[in-house]
Structure formats: C-alpha cells, structure tokens
C-alpha cells in the first residue's frame, strides 16, 4: 500500500532518491519518515493429492482462472513451512504430509514475495470459505502461467522431469 501522507506528521509525501531508489518520504527533515513499501510475504503450495496437483479458484476471481493455494505469512506463524501447512488445511481441509521448498518469486503487481512449497497432502477435500472451486490435474498435463506462483509450479514440474508449457494469459 502506498501512502500519500506521512503517518507521523500528516504532510504530503514526496519522492526522494534514497540509496539509488526513489521512495516516498516526508519533506520535513525533523520528521524523517520514509515509506519503504516492502513486499508482503505470501506462502504458496503446489498441493499434491492422490497423484494429482490441486488448483483452486478463489471466489473473488473471474472464471476460469485456477491457481495454487496461497496465503499471507502471519506474524503468529512459527515458520513459512507451518504457514503453508495451515493454509492447505484451512482452504482444502487436507493434512500436509510434507513441506518442501521450491523457491521464492516476486509478484510485483501485488508487491508480494511468494515463498513456494511442494505440499503432499492427504484427506478429503472440503473447500474453505474463500474458494469457489478446485480441479485435479495430472502433473504430466499441467500448464503454468508465466508469473509468480505459476513460475513455482513450472519449477516444481521441471524438477519432476516434466516439460510444462505456458498458458497464454490475455492482457486485461
């Protein structure tokens, strides 16, 4: 979230070059506030259930887009690994049987850093409140979207010996 006004003294923030990066800052030297606009950490899971990848569609998304299970890393989460296991349980009612790091990815449009994991899981799928639908995909048939969590899916598929193809996403 970009601030327009200083949260300390309410003066309008102005762009200022700071260590080679332009940041919004308070023009009052006595205040000295700088808005760093750091990315928000988000965890993501390539959920593997009964030999398939589970992709889900959030209720807020237009059909037909499906993606990985994701959630914010909360300050009460002991670790990113425990956070993604929690998200898989909350959103799909599945129990993680493992949590394996895939990589981290920038999602610039939302100013997020995605920390992605492969999460084998067991149990019966019951969708949480945020999800509208899910689908099961055989890993050999999976395609990835060329951004953020889609790149995590691609990297996991490649590590499993697959040669995934990118989806063509229309520009809105």
UniProtKB/TrEMBL annotation:
GO terms for molecular function: metal ion binding; NADH pyrophosphatase activity. One of its GO terms (biological process) is NADP+ catabolic process. It comes from the Bacteria. The keyword Hydrolase applies. It catalyses: a 5'-end NAD(+)-phospho-ribonucleoside in mRNA + H2O = a 5'-end phospho-adenosine-phospho-ribonucleoside in mRNA + beta-nicotinamide D-ribonucleotide + 2 H(+). Its cofactor is Zn(2+); Mg(2+). InterPro entries: NAD-cap_RNA_hydrolase_NudC (IPR050241), NUDIX_hydrolase-like_dom_sf (IPR015797), NUDIX_hydrolase_dom (IPR000086). It comes from Aquabacterium soli. GO terms for cellular component: cytosol. Keywords: Hydrolase, Magnesium, Metal-binding. PROSITE patterns: NUDIX. This is NUDIX domain-containing protein.
